[in-house]
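Quick note —
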Amino acid sequence: MFEKIEVFNMAHAMARHAGSRHAVIAQNMANADTPGYKAQDIASFQSHLSEASGDFQMRATRSSHLNMAQSPNGHAVFERQDAIADPNGNSVSLETEMMHGVDAKRQHDRAMAIYQSSMTILRSSIGRR
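Predicted structure written out below.
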C-alpha cells in the first residue's frame, strides 16, 4: 500500500541519498592524511531526481559495470574539482568535509520530517491519531 504513495518514495530516496553522501564524506575524512587521495562527493539529490525522471535510464548490475564508481547505495561518486590539493597531493580539507557533513545531515533530517508529516496526514485521513 505505501509503496504507491509517491511522497514516501521521495522521502525514502532523499534519506538514502543523504546516507550515501555521509558514507563518501566519512571516507574522505578517514583518508585526510593519505598522500595522493582526492576528495570525492556524489551528485546532488536534485540532479539525481532529474536523471531518474527520464524515460530511459542506464542501470548497473554491479559496481564495476559501466566503469562507474558507486557508493554503497548506488549513487555515482566523482572527484571534487573545487578541492585544493596539498603538496602531498591530498585534496581533503577537514573543515570542508565537516560542512558537507552538516549539509548531508540537514538533507536527512528534511527527509525524515517529510516522512513524519506525511504519516501524520495519512493517519488523520483514516481517523487515527
